[in-house]
Amino acid sequence: MIQGKQLRDAIISASHVLSNAKQSVDELNIFPVPDGDTGTNMSMTISAAARELARLAEPTVSEAADVASSALLRGARGNSGVILSLLFRGFSKGLKGKTEADGAALAEALGFGVEAAYKAVMKPTEGTILTVAREAAERGREKALADPSVDAVWEAICAEAEASLQRTPELLPVLKKAGVVDAGGKGLCLILRAMQDVFAGGAVVAADEAESPSASAVKAVSAAGSFDADITFTYCTEFIVARDKGNTEDPLRLRAYLESIGDCVVVVDDDDIIKVHVHTNDPGKALQEGVKYGQFETVKVENMRIQHANAGWVEEEA
Fold first, then answer.
1. Pairing between β-strand 235-243 and β-strand 294-303 as defined by DSSP bridges
2. Lower CB density within 10 Å: C or N end of the chain?
3. CA–CA dist 161, 165 (Å, integer)
């Protein structure tokens, strides 16, 4: 069984591990757009949770999961960051009310997160972080039937996630063409393995224990920085709307509208906020529609064509 402090420390350690490795993950970023920011976005997302979790002294498993879920959603950046927040939202649902949890409970919670992520994404694509998370959760549930211990189940989850990651190029031709695995899936594997290390009794990794990129990682920068791909929609647009009390507008209508003006749409309807991610050529229209649901808490618009053009700088430095 793990206690709340272990779950807290596991997520904090995972945040540090991903921060240390974010450059190598960025370099793999080909899908859905080769803009070289997946590692950075996922790192910023989970770092938001780490900051809030560090404030908790003696949390229960439920409390740690709730705090992480809320912080991840509010801090989510990019398509992969929002999906990551949804995976941890499943933890919050699956561990609700628990003071401690065994491996079976953790696998079930991860499964809830996978279900939420698939439902929230406009067009789920196999060969991405979604596949890695789904196959890992399925393997974890299978393992829990024979051995529900945390060590056994989470090790099975990690091993399957890493195996699934290696299969992503066979499922997504653009990855095979570029000679890389999925960047979001790689980031998730780093997070899961870092959590396993803490669950097994290891120390929390320090944020300054950065490692030099491997030769293969440096080589992969040509994928993010030089990969020739059409960018259909220029602007990555994200915002959080604080829902007005009494507003009866259905967020599904917002999602449908965003799907008509862009792609990579993810709309997360929480109790108090709506988190939106969309790639579009007209962010103004997305914002005009979003404000109908309440006041903006945050707005971010980034030009992915410029990001793609700048993604090759590491290759020049190497």
1. antiparallel
2. C
3. 6
Strands 2-3 and 294-303: unpaired
> What DSSP string runs through 16-44?
HHHHHHHHHHHTT--SS---S-HHHHHHH
Q: What share of the chain is helix, strand, coil (3-state, %, to 5)?
A: 60, 15, 25
Task: List the structure tokens of 81.
Answer: 């960051």
pLDDT in tens, 58-84: 999 999 999 999 999 999 998 899 999
Q: What percent of the chain clears pLDDT 90, i.e. is strictly above it?
A: 70
Residue 197, both tokens: 């290390």
3-class secondary-structure state, position 124: coil
| Rounded Cα distance, 177 and 188, in Å | 22
Please give the DSSP secondary-structure letter assigned to residue 249.
Answer: -
**Alpha carbons 67 and 126: distance in angstroms, whole number:** 30
Task: Give the bridge partners for 302, in sequence order.
Answer: 236
Q: How far is CA 141 from the centre of its chain?
A: 21
